[in-house]
Design a protein that fits this description.
By secondary structure, the protein is α+β, with helices and mostly antiparallel strands. It is built from two helices and five strands; from the N terminus they run ββαββαβ.
């Protein structure tokens, strides 16, 4: 049985266009303006009365650095706790900076940061350099 020869679709500039460009009618003016990005000092979390940043306290708060293995199948985790509740954005940003600086994995919860491994000395030095009051626990 003989094979059928496949026809090729020409894609040169001289060939006609395949379809109408669906993005032709769009413009930048059709989209809403983007919100301002979150800055390093402010998190966008406001007090109940709408004034001030309720998460500014975490910049000078008392933090505890702990070593934990419970419920983690024997894996060692460094836990930083003592953050103000409800400041998840600021805690997540701080955790991202810590993970990048220390080169380790970890996660941020609403009131704590967990880093993989025993990082107590490095974390304590980094936080003190940033102006935090740190207690090893």
């Amino acid at each position: 049985m003989a094979r059928r020869k496949r026809r090729r679709i020409e894609s040169t500039k001289e060939s006609t266009s395949f379809a109408v460009d669906p993005f032709e009618s769009l413009s930048v003016d059709d989209f809403p303006a983007l919100p301002d990005p979150v800055t390093a000092t402010g998190t966008g979390d406001r007090n109940a009365d709408g004034t001030g940043d309720k998460c500014e306290k975490i910049l000078f708060g008392q933090l505890r650095v702990l070593l934990d293995r419970k419920g983690r199948a024997g894996k060692t985790v460094t836990v930083i706790c003592g953050f103000e509740a409800g400041c998840g954005t600021a805690v997540a940003q701080l955790a991202q900076e810590l993970r990048r600086e220390l080169g380790t994995g970890g996660t941020a919860h609403d009131d704590a940061v967990e880093l993989q491994g025993d990082q107590r000395e490095k974390v304590t030095a980094w936080l003190r350099h940033r102006g935090f009051t740190v207690t090893l626990g």
